[in-house]
């Protein structure tokens, strides 16, 4: 049994964090995680821009190219599920740091792959590191920031995904003719060393510490955060601590996979797994092949890369718009809007490609598609960790991401099979249907978490 003092400290951790104003200290923690997000996005997104070149060098069929494009997601599947369990057992910070080793090593080795089999193996290793990072990063940001800022900042974190994707395209555009796709992979391994070093500045999550029974450590970490926030406020007094509703909801029970299916969490887990599977099936099935599809439509390599960059630029206003809508309108309606919008413009883009519409029309529909795509990512990463208590937050987020990676794995491979049979129009229609299925599940089973403390959302 816990002592009354331990319970008081536990309750105080959430309440003390919730009442803190947002300062440069919390933003610095966010910046470290966002930097890692940026480089991870570049490493994963680079395949969109170099797949055509790799396919030509290794003389791959469409199905083989689809398997290569999917290989990272196999690693991400295992990494996400593994990291979630480890982070809920051992803590956010150590697992967060270890992910960098796998990511950097995998990217480096990709540049030295002498055949497609080894390239697939190294992409799996790289994906394992990225899969570890995503649920931990979103858990840390969710647990460090107060409810009034949480949705916007987790959404902004995911916004570094399109920025990284665009940066990958720009790097490919200028560097591919000079150093080739191998040199690009080698270059992308370098930032992992920097991020791994900087990550030591990120503290352990006090919410995790108190859920693990380490109440004294949790109190010490919160005290350190309070001191840094006070210093950022030039010594001004912090707001008084107010009680957090249902704070005890996250302090009883143990972490584990089975906890995701007990009580009210079974409904949430089914919803998030279905949402992630179909959303990522549609997204990666389409975007991973975007450059290669443009090349197959007659665009030369550099022009297809340029068009893909232009289309991807719409992702920036997309995530900014939905970062605002998440707190202004709510998680559930924002999620549904992104999915329905993605479905509509994926279908229209496919029809434009089939009818050989003018390039302007193709780019316009593609930009609208990417606007909703990256808005969808912002919502997914903000919404998912809020649905679970601290003791299983990383596990819940990790397994949702892992199930999504099954969709990611199947998506590009399925496109390689569907393309010769149904053409580009069929590919984008299948993607649109995937987004609609995800939207129906959210409408039916989703719950609203806007503006509520994490402890108050627990059931």
Structure description:
With 459 residues, this protein is mostly helical. It has one domain (4-237, 256-453): MFS general substrate transporter like domains (Growth Hormone, Chain: A). Helix content is 80%, strand content 0%. It has 16 helices and no strands. It has helices at residues 4-18, 24-58, 62-90, 92-110, 116-144, 147-198, 206-211, 215-232, 265-287, 290-296, 301-312, 315-328, 331-354, 359-383, 393-445, 454-457. Helix 2 (24-58) packs antiparallel against helix 3, helix 2 packs antiparallel against helix 5 (116-144) and helix 5 packs across helix 15 (393-445). The chain is globular, with a radius of gyration of 22 Å.
Span between termini: 22 Å
Order of H and E elements: HHHHHHHHHHHHHHHH
The CATH top-level class label = Mainly Alpha
Helix content: over 70%
What structural category characterises the helix and strand content? mainly alpha
Question: What is the number of helices?
Answer: 16
Shape: globular
What is the mean pLDDT?
A: 82
Q: Strand percentage, roughly? A: under 5%
What are the SSEs and their pairings?
Elements: H1 4-18, H2 24-58, H3 62-90, H4 92-110, H5 116-144, H6 147-198, H7 206-211, H8 215-232, H9 265-287, H10 290-296, H11 301-312, H12 315-328, H13 331-354, H14 359-383, H15 393-445, H16 454-457
């Amino acid at each position: 049994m816990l002592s009354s003092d331990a319970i008081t400290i536990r309750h105080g951790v959430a309440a003390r964090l919730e009442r803190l104003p947002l300062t440069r200290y919390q933003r610095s923690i966010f910046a470290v995680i966002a930097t890692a997000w940026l480089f991870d996005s570049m490493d994963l997104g680079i395949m969109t821009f170099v797949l055509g070149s790799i396919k030509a060098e290794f003389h791959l069929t469409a199905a083989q190219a689809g398997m290569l494009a999917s290989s990272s997601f196999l690693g991400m599947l295992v990494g996400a599920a593994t990291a979630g369990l480890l982070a809920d057992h051992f803590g956010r910070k150590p697992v967060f740091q270890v992910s960098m080793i796998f990511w950097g090593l995998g990217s480096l080795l990709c540049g030295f792959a002498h055949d497609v089999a080894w390239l697939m193996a190294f992409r799996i290793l790289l994906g394992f590191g990225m899969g570890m990072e995503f649920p931990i990063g979103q858990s840390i940001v969710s647990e460090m920031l107060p409810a009034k800022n949480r949705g916007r900042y987790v959404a902004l974190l995911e916004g570094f995904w399109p920025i990284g994707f665009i940066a990958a395209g720009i790097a490919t555009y200028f560097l591919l003719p000079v150093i080739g796709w191998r040199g690009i992979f080698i270059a992308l391994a370098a930032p992992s060393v920097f991020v791994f070093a900087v990550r030591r500045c990120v503290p352990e999550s006090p919410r995790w510490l108190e859920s693990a029974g380490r109440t004294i450590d949790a109190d010490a970490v919160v005290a350190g955060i309070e001191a840094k926030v006070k210093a950022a406020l030039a010594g001004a007094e912090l707001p008084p601590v107010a009680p957090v509703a249902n704070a005890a909801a996250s302090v009883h029970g143990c972490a584990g996979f089975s906890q995701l299916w007990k009580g009210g969490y079974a409904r949430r887990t089914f919803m998030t797994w279905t949402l992630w599977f179909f959303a990522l099936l549609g997204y990666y099935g389409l975007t991973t092949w975007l450059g290669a599809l443009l090349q197959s439509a007659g665009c030369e390599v550099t022009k297809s890369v340029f068009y893909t960059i232009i289309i991807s630029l719409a992702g920036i206003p997309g995530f900014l718009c939905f970062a605002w809508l998440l707190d202004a309108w709510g998680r559930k309606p924002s999620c549904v809007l992104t999915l329905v919008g993605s479905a509509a413009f994926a279908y229209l883009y496919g029809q434009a490609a089939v009818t050989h519409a003018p390039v302007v029309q193709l780019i316009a529909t593609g930009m609208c598609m990417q606007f909703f795509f990256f808005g969808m990512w912002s919502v997914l990463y903000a919404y998912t960790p809020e649905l679970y208590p601290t003791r299983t937050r990383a596990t819940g987020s990790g397994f949702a991401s892992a199930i999504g990676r099954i969709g990611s794995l199947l998506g590009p491979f399925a496109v390689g099979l569907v393309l010769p049979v149904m053409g580009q129009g069929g590919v984008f229609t299948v993607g649109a249907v995937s987004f609609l299925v995800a939207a129906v599940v959210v409408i039916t089973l989703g719950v609203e978490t806007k503006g509520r403390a994490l402890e108050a959302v627990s059931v």
